[in-house]
Amino acid sequence: MSGPVLVIELAEPVPLASIQRLRNLLVxxxxxxxxxxxxxxxxxxxxxxxxxADTGDIDGRRPVMVSLMGPDIGDETTFEAEHADEVDxxxxxxxxxxxxxxxxxxxxxxxxxxxxxxLTAAVMDVIGGVAHAELLEEQVPxxxxxxxxxxxxxxxxxxxYGSAGFLRAWARQPGFRLLK
Length: 180
Prior knowledge:
The chain is α+β, with helices and mostly antiparallel strands. It has helices spanning 16-29, 76-84, 90-93, 110-127, 140-144, 164-171, and strands spanning 5-10, 30-37, 40-46, 61-69, 99-105, 130-134, 149-153, 159-162.
């Protein structure tokens, strides 16, 4: 079963020193770490490493993939395909993404949604960028009022763009849930 996904939009390539800091963060936070290639990692993230104490009586080690992509790193074709149907993001977030990071949970329990949001925020603390989260229509008014929101939109589909702080604030909301 697949779980939620968040995307970090980036205005430029991630320097190798930042990729190494990201790798170090992921190694420290994981019980299982596999580097598929530079910038692509399969993990079992310790929920506790993200400050999550309540795992809902399930194993706190959650399977996640973190994958950097764009020109000269990762799958450029996937990056282009994921961004092909996007609106022009420059007026919305101030830049046209050249690279991105996908944070993908492999399970879909409530804890996996929180882990995905908080792990994405931790990744952003290391490499920067803007979080791009697709929303349900009824989530738009909730996220619009949160700190760190850069923009929300409803067309062609509901979405929010924000900072790491936005993701942390949203993850604390009652009934928090990301889209799959």
